[in-house]
Design a protein that fits this description.
The structure is a single chain. The chain is an alpha/beta fold and about 325 residues long. It has a single domain, classed as NADP-dependent oxidoreductase domain (TIM Barrel), CATH 3.20.20. The chain contains 11 helices and 8 strands. An 8-stranded parallel sheet has the order 6-5-4-3-2-1-8-7, with helices on one face. α4 crosses α5.
Amino acid sequence: MNASALASRYSFPNIDKPVSALALGTAFYDEACKDQWFGILDAFLAAGGTLIDTGRIYGSSELVLGEWMQTRGVRDRVIVITKGGHGGEGALPASGLKELVATELTESLERLQTDRVDLYMLHRDNPDVPVEVIMDCLSSERSRGRICAYGVSNWTYDRVTVANAWARANGAPELAAVSNNISLAASAAPFYPGLVSVEATGQAWHVRTGTPLVAWSSQARGFFTGRYRPDMRDDVAATGDFFTKRMVEVYGSDANFERLRRATELGEREGGHSAVEIALAWVLHQPLPVIPIVGPHTVAELASCAGASSIALSAADVQHLDLRD
Protein backbone atom coordinates (compact mmCIF):
# COMPACT_ATOMS: atom_id res chain seq x y z
CA MET A 1 0.00 0.00 0.00
CA ASN A 2 1.24 3.47 -0.82
CA ALA A 3 0.31 6.75 0.82
CA SER A 4 -2.31 7.53 -1.84
CA ALA A 5 -4.08 4.17 -1.77
CA LEU A 6 -7.04 5.62 0.11
CA ALA A 7 -7.05 9.11 -1.38
CA SER A 8 -9.96 11.34 -0.37
CA ARG A 9 -13.05 11.44 -2.59
CA TYR A 10 -15.54 13.34 -0.45
CA SER A 11 -15.73 15.76 2.46
CA PHE A 12 -17.87 16.32 5.53
CA PRO A 13 -19.25 19.76 6.40
CA ASN A 14 -17.65 21.36 9.48
CA ILE A 15 -14.76 18.86 9.45
CA ASP A 16 -11.61 20.35 7.95
CA LYS A 17 -9.80 17.10 7.23
CA PRO A 18 -9.59 14.90 4.12
CA VAL A 19 -12.02 11.97 4.19
CA SER A 20 -10.41 8.74 3.01
CA ALA A 21 -12.06 6.58 0.36
CA LEU A 22 -12.65 3.84 2.93
CA ALA A 23 -13.50 3.96 6.62
CA LEU A 24 -11.79 1.56 9.01
CA GLY A 25 -14.28 -0.35 11.15
CA THR A 26 -13.10 -1.22 14.66
CA ALA A 27 -16.19 -2.85 16.16
CA PHE A 28 -14.33 -6.02 17.18
CA TYR A 29 -11.20 -4.34 18.62
CA ASP A 30 -10.37 -5.64 22.08
CA GLU A 31 -7.52 -4.95 24.46
CA ALA A 32 -6.35 -8.58 24.41
CA CYS A 33 -5.26 -8.21 20.75
CA LYS A 34 -4.25 -4.57 20.99
CA ASP A 35 -0.93 -4.99 19.14
CA GLN A 36 -2.76 -6.57 16.20
CA TRP A 37 -5.21 -3.68 15.98
CA PHE A 38 -2.48 -1.08 16.41
CA GLY A 39 -0.68 -2.62 13.43
CA ILE A 40 -3.78 -2.31 11.27
CA LEU A 41 -4.40 1.26 12.42
CA ASP A 42 -0.77 2.16 11.65
CA ALA A 43 -1.03 0.65 8.17
CA PHE A 44 -4.36 2.38 7.52
CA LEU A 45 -2.90 5.77 8.42
CA ALA A 46 0.22 5.14 6.32
CA ALA A 47 -1.97 4.33 3.29
CA GLY A 48 -3.77 7.65 3.57
CA GLY A 49 -6.65 6.43 5.71
CA THR A 50 -8.25 9.05 7.91
CA LEU A 51 -11.81 7.93 8.70
CA ILE A 52 -12.19 5.51 11.63
CA ASP A 53 -15.53 4.14 12.80
CA THR A 54 -16.24 3.03 16.35
CA GLY A 55 -19.18 3.06 18.76
CA ARG A 56 -20.01 3.03 22.43
CA ILE A 57 -21.65 -0.40 22.17
CA TYR A 58 -18.56 -2.00 20.60
CA GLY A 59 -16.95 -3.25 23.79
CA SER A 60 -13.36 -2.01 24.15
CA SER A 61 -13.16 -0.49 20.67
CA GLU A 62 -13.17 3.13 21.83
CA LEU A 63 -10.54 2.36 24.47
CA VAL A 64 -8.19 0.74 21.95
CA LEU A 65 -8.64 3.55 19.44
CA GLY A 66 -8.13 6.19 22.12
CA GLU A 67 -4.91 4.60 23.31
CA TRP A 68 -3.63 4.29 19.74
CA MET A 69 -4.32 7.96 18.99
CA GLN A 70 -2.67 9.01 22.25
CA THR A 71 0.48 6.87 21.92
CA ARG A 72 0.95 7.74 18.24
CA GLY A 73 0.10 11.41 18.65
CA VAL A 74 -2.22 11.35 15.64
CA ARG A 75 -5.53 12.64 16.99
CA ASP A 76 -5.53 15.63 14.64
CA ARG A 77 -4.78 13.48 11.59
CA VAL A 78 -7.84 11.25 11.81
CA ILE A 79 -11.60 11.67 11.68
CA VAL A 80 -13.29 9.78 14.49
CA ILE A 81 -16.84 8.54 14.06
CA THR A 82 -18.44 7.20 17.20
CA LYS A 83 -22.04 6.34 17.84
CA GLY A 84 -24.41 6.33 20.80
CA GLY A 85 -28.07 5.89 21.58
CA HIS A 86 -28.21 2.24 20.60
CA GLY A 87 -30.54 1.26 23.42
CA GLY A 88 -30.82 -2.11 25.09
CA GLU A 89 -33.28 -3.42 22.50
CA GLY A 90 -31.47 -1.97 19.50
CA ALA A 91 -33.65 1.15 19.33
CA LEU A 92 -33.18 4.74 20.41
CA PRO A 93 -34.77 5.19 23.87
CA ALA A 94 -38.13 6.92 23.83
CA SER A 95 -37.47 9.14 26.85
CA GLY A 96 -34.58 10.92 28.51
CA LEU A 97 -32.72 11.20 25.21
CA LYS A 98 -30.85 14.42 25.93
CA GLU A 99 -29.52 13.15 29.24
CA LEU A 100 -28.65 9.77 27.74
CA VAL A 101 -26.69 11.24 24.83
CA ALA A 102 -24.87 13.64 27.15
CA THR A 103 -23.85 10.79 29.45
CA GLU A 104 -22.84 8.42 26.65
CA LEU A 105 -20.92 11.11 24.81
CA THR A 106 -19.01 11.96 27.99
CA GLU A 107 -18.07 8.31 28.38
CA SER A 108 -17.01 8.05 24.73
CA LEU A 109 -14.82 11.14 25.01
CA GLU A 110 -13.11 9.70 28.07
CA ARG A 111 -12.50 6.36 26.38
CA LEU A 112 -11.22 8.02 23.22
CA GLN A 113 -8.98 10.36 25.25
CA THR A 114 -10.18 13.39 23.31
CA ASP A 115 -12.23 16.51 23.88
CA ARG A 116 -14.43 16.21 20.79
CA VAL A 117 -15.81 13.69 18.34
CA ASP A 118 -15.46 14.65 14.70
CA LEU A 119 -18.66 12.93 13.56
CA TYR A 120 -21.14 11.76 16.17
CA MET A 121 -23.96 9.50 15.06
CA LEU A 122 -27.01 8.05 16.72
CA HIS A 123 -26.70 4.30 16.22
CA ARG A 124 -30.42 3.54 15.82
CA ASP A 125 -33.70 5.36 15.37
CA ASN A 126 -37.02 5.19 17.18
CA PRO A 127 -40.00 6.43 15.13
CA ASP A 128 -41.86 7.13 18.38
CA VAL A 129 -39.40 9.93 19.17
CA PRO A 130 -40.12 13.15 17.25
CA VAL A 131 -37.32 14.08 14.87
CA GLU A 132 -37.15 17.61 16.28
CA VAL A 133 -36.35 16.25 19.74
CA ILE A 134 -33.47 14.20 18.35
CA MET A 135 -32.08 17.00 16.19
CA ASP A 136 -32.27 19.51 19.03
CA CYS A 137 -30.26 17.08 21.14
CA LEU A 138 -27.54 16.70 18.49
CA SER A 139 -27.45 20.40 17.73
CA SER A 140 -27.04 21.19 21.43
CA GLU A 141 -24.00 18.93 21.71
CA ARG A 142 -22.43 20.60 18.70
CA SER A 143 -23.06 24.01 20.27
CA ARG A 144 -21.22 22.78 23.36
CA GLY A 145 -18.21 22.00 21.16
CA ARG A 146 -18.15 18.31 21.98
CA ILE A 147 -18.92 17.21 18.42
CA CYS A 148 -17.91 18.84 15.13
CA ALA A 149 -20.68 17.33 13.02
CA TYR A 150 -23.50 14.86 13.46
CA GLY A 151 -25.28 12.16 11.51
CA VAL A 152 -27.57 9.19 11.94
CA SER A 153 -27.35 5.45 11.37
CA ASN A 154 -30.18 3.07 10.44
CA TRP A 155 -32.69 5.79 9.66
CA THR A 156 -35.25 5.73 6.88
CA TYR A 157 -34.96 8.51 4.34
CA ASP A 158 -38.37 9.92 5.23
CA ARG A 159 -36.99 10.61 8.71
CA VAL A 160 -33.69 11.89 7.33
CA THR A 161 -35.57 14.36 5.12
CA VAL A 162 -37.56 15.64 8.10
CA ALA A 163 -34.35 15.99 10.11
CA ASN A 164 -32.71 18.20 7.50
CA ALA A 165 -35.87 20.29 7.14
CA TRP A 166 -35.77 20.91 10.90
CA ALA A 167 -32.11 21.91 10.66
CA ARG A 168 -32.76 24.45 7.91
CA ALA A 169 -35.73 25.91 9.77
CA ASN A 170 -33.74 26.29 12.98
CA GLY A 171 -30.42 27.53 11.61
CA ALA A 172 -28.62 24.31 12.52
CA PRO A 173 -26.30 22.22 10.33
CA GLU A 174 -27.93 19.46 8.34
CA LEU A 175 -26.83 15.86 8.77
CA ALA A 176 -23.21 15.50 7.69
CA ALA A 177 -23.61 11.82 6.78
CA VAL A 178 -25.97 8.87 6.98
CA SER A 179 -24.74 5.38 7.85
CA ASN A 180 -26.92 2.66 6.37
CA ASN A 181 -26.13 -0.58 4.59
CA ILE A 182 -25.32 -1.15 0.95
CA SER A 183 -23.58 -4.15 -0.57
CA LEU A 184 -23.59 -6.26 -3.71
CA ALA A 185 -25.39 -9.03 -1.81
CA ALA A 186 -29.04 -8.18 -1.26
CA SER A 187 -30.37 -9.01 2.21
CA ALA A 188 -33.64 -10.91 2.55
CA ALA A 189 -34.28 -9.27 5.93
CA PRO A 190 -32.41 -7.06 8.40
CA PHE A 191 -29.61 -9.02 10.06
CA TYR A 192 -30.71 -7.53 13.40
CA PRO A 193 -33.94 -5.66 14.19
CA GLY A 194 -33.78 -1.97 13.40
CA LEU A 195 -31.13 -2.12 10.66
CA VAL A 196 -31.75 -0.17 7.46
CA SER A 197 -30.39 -0.85 3.97
CA VAL A 198 -30.32 1.69 1.15
CA GLU A 199 -32.98 1.15 -1.49
CA ALA A 200 -33.67 3.16 -4.64
CA THR A 201 -35.25 6.07 -2.75
CA GLY A 202 -32.25 6.35 -0.46
CA GLN A 203 -29.77 6.16 -3.31
CA ALA A 204 -31.62 8.96 -5.09
CA TRP A 205 -31.54 11.04 -1.89
CA HIS A 206 -27.76 10.70 -1.58
CA VAL A 207 -27.28 11.61 -5.25
CA ARG A 208 -29.58 14.62 -4.95
CA THR A 209 -28.15 16.02 -1.71
CA GLY A 210 -24.52 14.96 -2.08
CA THR A 211 -24.57 13.73 1.51
CA PRO A 212 -22.10 10.85 1.94
CA LEU A 213 -23.32 7.38 2.78
CA VAL A 214 -20.98 5.74 5.30
CA ALA A 215 -21.86 2.18 4.42
CA TRP A 216 -21.69 -0.52 7.08
CA SER A 217 -21.40 -4.20 6.11
CA SER A 218 -20.30 -3.07 2.66
CA GLN A 219 -18.82 -6.54 2.06
CA ALA A 220 -21.97 -8.33 3.27
CA ARG A 221 -20.42 -9.58 6.50
CA GLY A 222 -18.01 -11.88 4.67
CA PHE A 223 -20.49 -13.47 2.28
CA PHE A 224 -18.10 -13.05 -0.65
CA THR A 225 -15.32 -15.00 1.04
CA GLY A 226 -17.04 -18.15 -0.20
CA ARG A 227 -17.34 -19.74 3.22
CA TYR A 228 -21.12 -19.94 2.85
CA ARG A 229 -22.55 -22.52 0.45
CA PRO A 230 -25.98 -23.17 -1.09
CA ASP A 231 -26.21 -26.57 0.59
CA MET A 232 -26.24 -24.86 3.99
CA ARG A 233 -29.79 -23.75 3.23
CA ASP A 234 -31.05 -27.32 3.36
CA ASP A 235 -30.76 -27.43 7.12
CA VAL A 236 -30.19 -23.97 8.55
CA ALA A 237 -30.47 -25.30 12.11
CA ALA A 238 -27.46 -27.54 11.53
CA THR A 239 -25.16 -24.84 10.18
CA GLY A 240 -23.65 -24.01 13.57
CA ASP A 241 -23.60 -20.76 15.48
CA PHE A 242 -26.09 -17.91 15.39
CA PHE A 243 -24.00 -15.82 13.01
CA THR A 244 -23.73 -18.59 10.43
CA LYS A 245 -27.45 -19.29 10.64
CA ARG A 246 -28.28 -15.63 10.11
CA MET A 247 -25.84 -15.34 7.21
CA VAL A 248 -27.59 -18.21 5.44
CA GLU A 249 -31.04 -16.82 6.21
CA VAL A 250 -30.23 -13.24 5.22
CA TYR A 251 -27.85 -13.69 2.29
CA GLY A 252 -28.32 -17.30 1.12
CA SER A 253 -30.52 -16.63 -1.90
CA ASP A 254 -29.97 -18.06 -5.36
CA ALA A 255 -29.48 -14.51 -6.63
CA ASN A 256 -26.71 -13.81 -4.13
CA PHE A 257 -24.88 -17.03 -4.89
CA GLU A 258 -25.05 -16.04 -8.56
CA ARG A 259 -23.60 -12.63 -7.64
CA LEU A 260 -20.80 -14.46 -5.82
CA ARG A 261 -20.15 -16.62 -8.87
CA ARG A 262 -20.02 -13.60 -11.16
CA ALA A 263 -17.74 -11.66 -8.80
CA THR A 264 -15.38 -14.63 -8.61
CA GLU A 265 -15.37 -15.03 -12.39
CA LEU A 266 -14.80 -11.32 -13.03
CA GLY A 267 -12.01 -11.14 -10.46
CA GLU A 268 -10.17 -14.04 -12.04
CA ARG A 269 -10.52 -12.50 -15.48
CA GLU A 270 -9.38 -9.03 -14.39
CA GLY A 271 -6.02 -9.78 -12.84
CA GLY A 272 -6.67 -12.27 -10.09
CA HIS A 273 -8.80 -10.17 -7.76
CA SER A 274 -10.85 -11.93 -5.10
CA ALA A 275 -14.65 -11.87 -5.07
CA VAL A 276 -14.41 -9.80 -1.87
CA GLU A 277 -12.39 -7.14 -3.70
CA ILE A 278 -14.77 -7.11 -6.66
CA ALA A 279 -17.79 -6.78 -4.34
CA LEU A 280 -16.18 -3.81 -2.59
CA ALA A 281 -15.26 -2.23 -5.93
CA TRP A 282 -18.92 -2.59 -6.93
CA VAL A 283 -19.97 -0.52 -3.91
CA LEU A 284 -17.40 2.15 -4.78
CA HIS A 285 -18.78 2.34 -8.32
CA GLN A 286 -22.33 3.15 -7.24
CA PRO A 287 -23.63 6.52 -8.52
CA LEU A 288 -23.82 8.09 -5.08
CA PRO A 289 -21.25 9.47 -2.64
CA VAL A 290 -20.37 6.34 -0.66
CA ILE A 291 -17.61 5.58 1.83
CA PRO A 292 -17.61 1.87 2.68
CA ILE A 293 -16.64 0.75 6.18
CA VAL A 294 -14.25 -2.21 6.03
CA GLY A 295 -13.21 -4.42 8.94
CA PRO A 296 -9.91 -6.16 8.15
CA HIS A 297 -8.43 -8.45 10.79
CA THR A 298 -4.92 -8.34 9.28
CA VAL A 299 -2.74 -5.87 7.41
CA ALA A 300 -2.98 -8.17 4.38
CA GLU A 301 -6.77 -7.93 4.46
CA LEU A 302 -6.47 -4.14 4.72
CA ALA A 303 -4.21 -4.14 1.65
CA SER A 304 -6.84 -6.17 -0.19
CA CYS A 305 -9.51 -3.60 0.70
CA ALA A 306 -7.27 -0.73 -0.36
CA GLY A 307 -6.57 -2.51 -3.64
CA ALA A 308 -10.28 -2.74 -4.33
CA SER A 309 -10.46 1.06 -4.39
CA SER A 310 -8.29 1.08 -7.53
CA ILE A 311 -10.23 -1.58 -9.47
CA ALA A 312 -11.91 -0.09 -12.53
CA LEU A 313 -15.29 -1.62 -13.31
CA SER A 314 -17.14 -0.74 -16.48
CA ALA A 315 -20.81 0.21 -16.40
CA ALA A 316 -21.50 -3.18 -17.95
CA ASP A 317 -19.52 -4.89 -15.16
CA VAL A 318 -21.56 -3.08 -12.49
CA GLN A 319 -24.82 -4.14 -14.14
CA HIS A 320 -23.60 -7.71 -14.69
CA LEU A 321 -22.53 -8.21 -11.07
CA ASP A 322 -25.96 -7.12 -9.82
CA LEU A 323 -27.81 -9.38 -12.27
CA ARG A 324 -29.17 -6.41 -14.20
CA ASP A 325 -27.94 -7.39 -17.64
